[in-house]
Write a structure and sequence with these properties.
Alpha-Beta Plaits, 164 residues, 33% helix, alpha+beta
């Protein structure tokens, strides 16, 4: 799991190293550190750290050490990796198919976001639809691919994947 934290450290020598050591001591991997030495509040400086840990237990140990060491966690977020999704659908795509695609996408596990833009005439079902989004799980990409391929094959329209 990737974690991003905003820490508040006392402005004394050794505090930054002392805040980073528990991460590596608990099987963590530091990805980035931004030290805002010019931002001081109440004698403390702001530091942003992004790191990876393998288990929740490792993260709990790091947080406990920080609490004992007077390292204040001002904000903490998990950082989730996501994977881009991009499809272009072209052909005879009736309104009912657009509704079916929308309902079907809502039920796909690991689909974080989806945006569909449709162009075409209101009097004809000849349309183009651009679908872009992000998945939170790489395994979901295969499910999403099958979903769109099945709809395109059954609906008789063309599917173009990955325009980036």
């Amino acid at each position: 799991m990737k974690v991003n934290v905003d820490l508040s450290l006392l402005d004394v020598p050794g505090q930054l190293v002392g805040a980073l050591e528990p991460i590596s001591a608990n099987d963590g991997n530091i990805i980035g550190v931004v030290h805002h030495h010019d931002v001081m509040t109440g004698g403390r400086i702001a530091v942003n750290v992004t790191f990876e840990v393998r288990t929740d237990r490792s993260l709990e140990r790091i947080l406990a050490i920080w609490k004992e060491s007077d390292v204040v966690v001002a904000k903490m977020d998990a950082v989730y990796e996501s994977f881009p999704i991009q499809y272009l659908l072209v052909g005879n795509i009736p309104s009912q198919e657009i509704e079916s695609l929308t309902r079907g996408m809502e039920g796909i596990e690991g689909l974080a976001s989806m945006d569909m833009r449709i162009t075409g005439s209101l009097t004809s079902s000849s349309r183009a639809a651009m679908v872009v989004g992000r998945a939170t799980k790489q395994e979901s990409l295969e499910t999403i691919e099958r979903f769109f391929r099945n709809h395109a094959e059954n609906g008789g329209y063309m599917l173009i994947r990955g325009l980036e």
